[in-house]
Amino acid sequence: MQSKFKAALLAMALLTSSGAALAEEGFWAWMGTFSRQKEVQPVDNKTYADECGSCHYAYPPGLLPSKSWAKLLDEKALSDHFGENATLDKATLKTIYDYAMDNAAEKSWYKRSRKIAVATEDETPIRITEVRYIKRKHHDIPEKMIKGNKDVKSLSYCNACHTKADKGIFDSDTVSIPNYPDYD
Length: 184
Fold this sequence. Notes:
Keywords: Signal. This protein is an all-alpha fold.
C-alpha cells in the first residue's frame, strides 16, 4: 500500500514538472476544471473574424502562443504583414489584440491548443505552419496534395482540408483533401 502511494506521488511529481504542466497557467486549476475540451476554441469575436477573415482564414488564436500574437499584431509589423499592409485603427487593433492574447494557446482550455503551447515554449513562430506540432501532424501528407494541389496550395489554408475548421475542429476524421477524396 505504501509503495502504491509513493508511486502515485512520483507520477504526480513527474506530471506536474512536465512540459504540459508548465504550459498551464495553473496545472491544478486546469486539472480541476470541467472547461477542458478537445481541439481549439473556434473564433467567436466578430471584429477579429471580419478583419482577419477579410484577407485570409481567420486563424483561431489558440493556434499560436501569445508571444507570437504580440509579434504579429504590432502596429509596425502590420504595416508589412507578409507583404501586405494590414494596418488597423487603434480601437480595432486593440480589440483584435486583446482577443488574440486572451485566447492564445497557453491560455486556452482546449487540448490541441495546449499541445501547441508546449511545442512553442522555446520559440516564437509567426506563421502557424512554423509550429512544430502542426508540422508533425502534417508531415506524412505528400507535397503534391498540398503545394501541388490548386485547391489547397499551402498548409496555411487550414479550411481547405479541415472541413470543420470554423468550429475549431482539426482532427483527422474531418479532413477532406480537395482532389484526393480517397486519401486517408
